[in-house]
């Protein structure tokens, strides 16, 4: 059996919380080897996906925009996101299995990150914001100074609220931004565009590398 998997980190846009109420999973552009590995018709294609957790079936569809933009997985992907209570920062895994003499099968799984926070750089304020301000406060456990492990060294980072801003011109709600004093330890010239913090069991933190998606391919005897 041959198995390929596509792992994507969800954003607010993917989970219907960017103001558009759209739900979709981004895939690489038309012609990319990853999209070609999953979908061979090179045009809109419907397919059934099995929930690896429950065995439930979801009817999904891949779209191929003419503009050359990224492809999207739509239809009942929205229902899957809602049923799993997925949010920005969580991961979705689409898997395709190839069995000798059988039609390929699609499966979907997910990973929720209660101990992970994603923050993005806000150019105008030289500060960082998160999609989940309330969750961020709980994540810090009322701490304003944290220790981030970098190899075998702990780096002290002071986190301070700066102000509330409109992230987009059409926004109706302001979002708090935070200064990370000491974060310059992790970059040389330009500020980090994305900070991914993960809280360890001992109360310390580590920084994970940001990514949009990952692709894996394995062969197994069973």
UniProtKB/TrEMBL annotation:
<protein>
    <submittedName>
        <fullName>Uncharacterized protein</fullName>
    </submittedName>
</protein>
């Amino acid at each position: 059996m041959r198995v390929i998997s596509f792992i994507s980190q969800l954003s607010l846009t993917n989970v219907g919380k960017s103001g558009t109420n759209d739900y979709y999973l981004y895939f690489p552009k038309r012609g990319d080897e990853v999209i070609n590995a999953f979908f061979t018709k090179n045009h809109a294609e419907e397919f059934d996906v099995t929930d690896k957790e429950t065995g439930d079936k979801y009817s999904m569809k891949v779209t191929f925009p003419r503009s050359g933009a990224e492809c999207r997985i739509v239809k009942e992907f929205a229902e899957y996101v809602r049923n799993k209570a997925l949010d920005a920062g969580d991961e979705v895994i689409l898997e395709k299995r190839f069995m000798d003499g059988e039609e390929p099968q699609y499966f979907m799984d997910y990973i929720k990150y209660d101990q992970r926070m994603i923050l993005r750089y806000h150019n105008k304020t030289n500060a960082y914001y998160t999609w989940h301000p309330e969750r961020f406060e709980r994540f810090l456990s009322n701490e304003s100074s944290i220790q981030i492990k970098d190899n075998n060294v702990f780096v002290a980072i002071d986190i301070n609220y700066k102000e509330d801003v409109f992230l987009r011109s059409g926004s109706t709600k302001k979002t708090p931004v935070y200064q990370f004093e000491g974060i310059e330890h992790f970059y040389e010239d330009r500020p980090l565009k994305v900070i991914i913090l993960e809280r360890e069991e001992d109360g310390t933190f580590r920084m994970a590398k940001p990514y949009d998606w990952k692709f894996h391919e394995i062969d197994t005897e069973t």
